[in-house]
Amino acid sequence: MKKTIKKKVRSTRITMPKIRSTKQKFSKIKEQDKTLYKLLQAEQKRQADSLELIPSENIVSKAVLEAMGSMLTNKYSEGYPGARYYGGNEEIDKIENLARDRVKELFGVPYANVQPYSGSPANMAVYIATCEAGDTVLGQHLFDGGHLTHGWKASATAKFFNTVQYHVKEDGYIDLDEVKRLAKKHKPKLIWVGATAYVREFPFKELGKVADSVGAYLVADIAHIAGLIVAGVHISPVKYVDIITTTTHKTLRGPRGGLIMVTNKGLKKDSKLGVKIDKSIMPGSQGGPHNHTTAAMAVAFKEASRPAFKRYGKQVVKNAEALANTLIKGGAELVSGGTDNHLMLLNCGEGRGAIVEIALDTVGLTVNKNTIPKEPASPMYPSGIRLGTPSITTRGMKTKEMKKIAKWILRVLDITKDESLPENSKDRALYLKDFTENIKHNKDIKAIKSEVLTLSRDFPIPDVLV
Ligand code: DSN
Fold it and tell me: Which ligand 1 atom is the nearest neighbour of the CA of 197?
């Protein structure tokens, strides 16, 4: 009888964890380093008392934090499980294998490398594994949502490879006709699909056909949507692409890190592709893996395999739709007229992204300024801001809260509607400095700030993620 009761209590705990606010104490740092302690406390307070709307950010579980803060950081492990350049790696081998096996299972792929330090190093390793210097590569233009490492002129990728860029159409969808035309003309070795500011579903299947028609490798950079794919709310690229790269800290809700996977399609094209990726990470471009991060990835992959994670991913998308709809109803202009995923791009008017970012930051809504398609201004002073729902959904918010947040954003847009950057680019930094100071004293801004604080405290940073 007693045993049955015990079992029941345990299973209730696993399926319905209690959500409490989590607060890190930093007691050892407090003893040793008051300066850093104060900074950590201040950042902890900022995260708790504001709402994170940057679509590439999220909140990890205490279990992920525990693995990140573990003694695994003490160990060097250059090489791979069973083939290291250092002794003492018996347990590390098991941890890395655990992370690799879990992620292979999660995405349904035959090969994974969990060592990339983050997304950009993962992408660089793909170039090293598949291209020679000077080869042609096709990727999405930065202003149209693409990533720096997909061939943008300021990135090393454009220095070492001949990069050609495709765009989105007026409606915000990838211009497949242009992709086909450029692929036929330039015969790229590699084509990237994936972005940091694209609000529609990625056409993996269609781009798979384009890549096959010119014999190119197709790589899906799913950094933003990895968690949505796991949750089944975005099409998976696994059947259509050769290689997949991702970060693990965005919608996937793991530690800050990177990951490369090879699909069956990729291995069929080149049975050595996995080995080439391994070599391109170590010794090709990195040294020892960050074992504490590998362990934290193993934790996050397990968390992502639970039914609760699927519910989370669905809610992220539902929340984004609610946020977008309320913004549109209130007169805001969203690129592509809405969103299919976790993020939206708001057109704030020429060069006004930084102004709106600062004003929203002042009320406790954290966003990032971003370029928009056919950007009329510049990456430093762009016209848009990027918004997303991964972090606020982790805090337990639903569509009701999204409507509140959208209304605050609309009020801030109204308060700042007459602000614009000085014509002379030299005067802009000073203008933004003054604006940052002055906006704090605006009566309406102060009122919104207090409402945001109340909502933030009603939805504390969760202790256990569900
Ligand atoms: N910095 C990432 C993002 O915010 O989307 C992309 O690398």
Answer: 5
Residue 183 has φ and ψ, to the nearest 5°, of -65, -45
CATH architecture of structural domain 307-458: Alpha-Beta Complex (3.90)
State pLDDT tens for residues 88-114. Answer: 999 999 999 999 999 999 999 999 999
CA of 205 to the centre of ligand 1 (A): 24
Q: 89 CA distance to ligand 1 centroid (A)?
A: 33
Query: Over the stretch 240-278, which tens digit does the pLDDT of each residue have?
Result: 999 999 999 999 999 999 999 999 999 999 999 999 999
119 CB less than 6 Å from ligand 1?
A: yes
Residues 6+ apart with CB under 8 A from 364: 49, 50, 51, 449, 452, 453, 456
Spatial separation of the C-alpha atoms in residues 74 and 72, rounded to whole Å: 5
Nearest atom in ligand 1 to the alpha carbon of residue 148 is 7
Rounded CA-CA distance 135/17 in Å is: 52
Annotated catalytic residue 375: no
Q: Which of 49, 57, 66, 78 is catalytic?
A: 78
CATH no., domain 71-304: 3.40.640.10
**pTM for this predicted structure:** 0.94
Which part of the chain has CATH 3.40.640.10? Answer: 71-304
Q: List, by residue range, all CATH 3.90.1150.10 domains of the chain.
A: 307-458
